[in-house]
Amino acid sequence: MNMNLEEKKTCEKLMDCAEKIFAEKGYDKASIREITNAANVNLASVHYHFGSKEKLLQKLLDRKLHWLNHQRLNALKTLEKKSKSKALKPSQILEAFFGTLLDMLDEKDYGGEMFLRLLGRSSLEPNCIISSISNGKSNAVTQRFRDALFKALPNVPKNEIVWRFHFMVGATSYAISGNGLNKLFVTAEISEAESVSKRLLKKRLMSFLLGGLRSPINSFLIGKK
Amino acid sequence: MNMNLEEKKTCEKLMDCAEKIFAEKGYDKASIREITNAANVNLASVHYHFGSKEKLLQKLLDRKLHWLNHQRLNALKTLEKKSKSKALKPSQILEAFFGTLLDMLDEKDYGGEMFLRLLGRSSLEPNCIISSISNGKSNAVTQRFRDALFKALPNVPKNEIVWRFHFMVGATSYAISGNGLNKLFVTAEISEAESVSKRLLKKRLMSFLLGGLRSPINSFLIGKK
DNA sequence: GTCTATATCATGATAGAC
DNA sequence: GTCTATCATGATATAGAC
Fold first, then answer.
1. CB–CB contact A179 B218 (8 Å)
2. Given an 8 Å threshold on Cβ–Cβ distance, is B164 in contact with A204?
3. Which among A51, A59, A131, B76 has most CB atoms closer than 10 A?
């Protein structure tokens, strides 16, 4: 065997460098040349290993998403084990799903911020070549959580729960992608330090999500306070 | 004067075509060449009139945003006039702000869908050259609504209201940009027809938003049912 | 099989003639 | 204000070295 074990494979080097550069400049502004230069590999290697720049991004997202879903599932299983056969509380389910995601932000190494920005980006693109979101494994986990919510909220129509799950994902994606944060609070009387705090973001967002999830059906249209 | 009044100006033709093409293919995949061809104008005219492709997008977003904010402000003023000096209900304020936005989706001509997708896109880009969102006029309107919410919810800390406003914008942007919609509901037992219905989306989203806005502070952390 | 060097093609941008 | 080059850069495809 002439495999050189002390050097990273080209493929690995590419993914690591790409992740960093995508995070810094965004997908569009990051060029293949810059990535291959940083990784000290040939320009064409991206095409060889991944097929295209887009597919490289896809692989990166899949890697992260896979890890995230693993964590989420573990969190859910732990909760279910503890509570025996009793239904979980909605707040616990949200903690396992969104809390796990939000915790990613704290760990610099996991590149959570870039992950979420890119995930957001890819879900906004019309040509959804980047379909990590709808991929098998990811969907299975989502479905698992959906079922948990069904159980936890037996009186709410399943339809509504699915929709609200969707809304929660939206609020979270947006909040995390950081976009508004810097801008929105310039005019508001909120200190910079506070606006950056990830811990507070989590508290606040979770509270918001839970309120939305448990909102009376069509309370707005019924018009009652 | 040799102005030709019966023909659209190049500038106008460009904006109209760009709007359509951006909507169909997304910003990246839409090329300047395609736009100028569709508009029957010269390739260089984009740069002459707007400076760059990016600035063309910026102009488009500004145009839409200006119109939207005008509508929103009108809706708010009408409500305030009706209720005299009495504080508005949160649901009314949300209707004026988010309802107005959601109504854009129904009118094909307004290109609401593309607008929101592009707006979402631009807020996700790291280099926020596209800063329509934080531009003066837009901020003024947002602030006006924020103040209305302060009045409507005198017992909620202003901090929290600002955050929740932000979360609501996120949930709405995501819900509207349509991304999940097609994917998320494949596995769920929701009919295609229903998932497309804009009217139902509005009902559901508004209910969710209102629930989130009025959620007890930190209910999640306190842990009470 | 893995990687490199090179070629090709489309794109955004610019300069200068008209 | 419009048009025609022209440029620089980037993505992708191919051929071939190791």
1. no
2. yes
3. B76
pTM of the model: 0.85
Contact between the CB of B44 and strand D at under 7 Å: yes
B87-142 confidence digits (pLDDT tens): 899 999 999 999 999 888 776 665 666 777 777 666 666 554 445 555 666 678 99
Q: What proportion of chain B, given as a percentage, has pLDDT over 90? A: 48
For chain A, the structural domain boundaries read 61-221
Burial group, residue B128, by CB count within 10 angstroms (0-12, 13-18, 19+): middle
pLDDT at position A222 over 50: no
B159 reaches A (C-beta below 8 A): yes
SS3 for B13-82 is HHHHHHHHHHHHHHHHHCCHHHHHHHHCCCCCHHHHHCCCHHHHHHHHHHHHHHHHHHHHHHHHHHHHHH
Q: What is the DSSP letter of A157?
A: -
Please spell the DSSP secondary structure of A9-58, one letter per residue. -HHHHHHHHHHHHHHHHHHHHS-HHHHHHHHT--TTHHHHHHSSHHHHHH
- B199 vs A: CB within 8 A: no
Q: How far apart are CA A113 and CA A102, in angstroms?
A: 10
The closest CB to that of B162, out of A117, A125, A185, belongs to A185
Say whether B162 and A209 touch across the interface (CB within 8 A).
no
- CATH 1.20.140.10 assigned to B61-221: no
- Of A54 and A23, the structure prediction assigns the larger pLDDT to A54
